[in-house]
Structures are given as C-alpha cells and as structure tokens.
C-alpha cells in the first residue's frame, strides 16, 4: 500500500489516471491507519473495566457464596461496570464513525462529588498496592458528559497505578476554588522527566517503555483524556517531579443557574 505510481513528465490521460489511482491509494491508506488507531484505542480503554469486573468475580468466588452483603455488592458493581463498558463501546464506535464527533447530546448537570465517589468506588479494586485514597471530595455542579469525565479520571488513575511502586500512594480529590472544580489525581510514583512533560498528551507518545515492568501501555490514554477534556470545556494541568510523583488536574467551570450553555 505504501507504493505509488511514478508520474510521467507528460500530462496526458495516463498521467491523469495515475494521479487518480495515487489519490485513491492515499485515501485507502488513511482509512486503514484510522482503523488501526481505533483498535488500539478500544483495547486500551476496555482493559480497565475488565480489570474491575474480574476483581469482583474473584471476590464473589471467594466470599460471595456465604456472605449476602458481598454478593449484592459484587453484583451491583459488575452491573455498573458492564453498563460502563457498553457506554464505552458505543462511544468508541461513535469516534470511529466520525472524526469530528462531539459528545454534546449527553451533557447534563453533574455533581462533582457524586462523580468522583463513583470513580473511587470502582477504582478500589483496580489496585490495593499502591493504595488509592479519597483525600477530599467537595461538591459543586458542573455541566458535563459524566460518562466521558469518569473515563478521563480512570485514565489518570490507571496511569498512576502503572507508574507508582506498590508501596506508594494515589490520592484522589475534588476541590472547589474560585468558581472552578479541580479534580486531582496525585501519585508518589516515578514521575515524568521535564523534557517529556509537553509530549505525553500526544497520540502514541510513551516516555520510555523500559522504565516500568508494564508493557501494556500504548501511549493513547492521555491523548484520549485530552480529547475528553476539550469536549467538556475542561483544562488539564500536569505537574511532575522525577522520582517523586505526578499530579494530573482537570479543571471545570462551576455551573451557575444564571448561565445558559449552548
Ligand atoms: P500509556 O498507555 O503508555 O500509559 P498515556 O498516554 O496514558 O499512555 O501516557 C503517556 C506516557 O506518559 C506514559 O507512557 C508514561 O511514560 C507517562 N505517564 C503518564 N502518566 C504518568 C504517571 N502518573 N507517572 C509517570 N509517568 C506517567
């Protein structure tokens, strides 16, 4: 597919035909690359809910048979994760079909504390070591597409888990300051070198795969997060110190009743 017909110097019918064929090949190649990217994207994003579901299945297997509380908690969690995966698949298909798709039809008033609490509840099974701690959870209304905001926070948590040693910590918080909502995911992990800080949001960019024992990363997580932040009118901030840790902050405007959002 990489090859193209060499164009003759004479501009005749053959020249036109060759040009048309070359353009068609360009389009096919572009479509093929888009598809490859979609497959990478999808598998990256589906890994987290699958981890949560298999965590609950193990829990049910061990304790659920004799403990009705564990049983109902497990069933509820698996139901909600399955729903999350269904949403995610729909969203990925949506992205695959349209390159410039927006999420606006699913926008609703969302309570920031409820949202973070849900993300926290699901993440407790992603990782025990490093431990995930809900440090602060203040409440305010934001106008957002909650499914995608949860997906974004999970990408940050997933990364924090991947790049933090077992004895480290991951702190989640939601703070309200000056009419803004700050969602923070802070870890005490390996950090990001200064020279890479500006590049980690690029598609497929990975700092150095030899830094961790994890080989699973595709370098897509943060580029998806960037897209989600933009669609939700949020700003992202990344602070990191090598060998000390990383903080990712998503900043949303607070919704006020005097405001109309179009
Ligand atoms: P990946 O699938 O490789 O994790 P991402 O786009 O999510 O892809 O992240 C890009 C790169 O940024 C990662 O390869 C990693 O090197 C770095 N990175 C992201 N989050 C963290 C973090 N919390 N701590 C250290 N490095 C991180």
UniProtKB/TrEMBL annotation:
Its EC number(s): 2.7.13.3
Ranges of residues in domain Histidine kinase: 41-256
Entry GO MF terms: phosphorelay sensor kinase activity
EC class of the enzyme, as a word: transferase
Reaction(s) catalysed (UniProt annotation): ATP + protein L-histidine = ADP + protein N-phospho-L-histidine
Any one Gene Ontology cellular component term annotated for this protein: plasma membrane
Domain HAMP: 1-33
UniProt KW keywords: Kinase, Membrane, Phosphoprotein, Transferase, Transmembrane, Transmembrane helix, Two-component regulatory system
Name of the protein in question: histidine kinase
Whole sequence portion shown: 220 to 481 of 481
């Amino acid at each position: 597919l990489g090859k193209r017909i060499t164009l003759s110097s004479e501009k005749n019918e053959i020249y036109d035909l060759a040009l048309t064929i070359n353009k068609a090949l360009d389009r096919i190649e572009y479509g093929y690359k888009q598809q490859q990217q979609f497959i990478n994207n999808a598998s990256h994003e589906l890994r987290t809910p699958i981890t949560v579901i298999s965590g609950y299945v193990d829990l049910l297997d061990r304790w659920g048979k004799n403990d009705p509380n564990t049983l109902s908690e497990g069933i509820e969690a698996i139901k909600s994760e399955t729903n999350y995966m269904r949403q995610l698949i729909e969203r990925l298909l949506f992205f695959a079909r349209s390159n410039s798709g927006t999420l606006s039809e699913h926008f609703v008033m969302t309570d920031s504390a409820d949202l973070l609490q849900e993300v926290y509840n699901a993440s407790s099974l992603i990782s025990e070591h490093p431990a995930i701690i809900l440090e602060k959870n203040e409440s305010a209304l934001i106008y957002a597409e909650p499914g995608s905001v949860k997906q974004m926070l999970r990408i940050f948590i997933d990364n924090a888990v991947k790049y933090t040693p077992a004895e480290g910590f991951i702190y989640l918080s939601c703070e309200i300051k000056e009419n803004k909502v700050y969602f923070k995911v802070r870890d005490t992990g390996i950090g990001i070198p200064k020279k890479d800080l500006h590049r980690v949001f690029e598609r497929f960019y990975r700092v150095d795969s030899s830094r961790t024992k994890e080989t699973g990363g595709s370098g897509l997580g943060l580029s998806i997060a960037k897209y989600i932040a933009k669609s939700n009118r949020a700003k992202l901030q990344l602070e990191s110190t090598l060998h000390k840790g990383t903080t990712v902050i998503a900043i949303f405007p607070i919704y006020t009743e005097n405001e109309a959002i179009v």
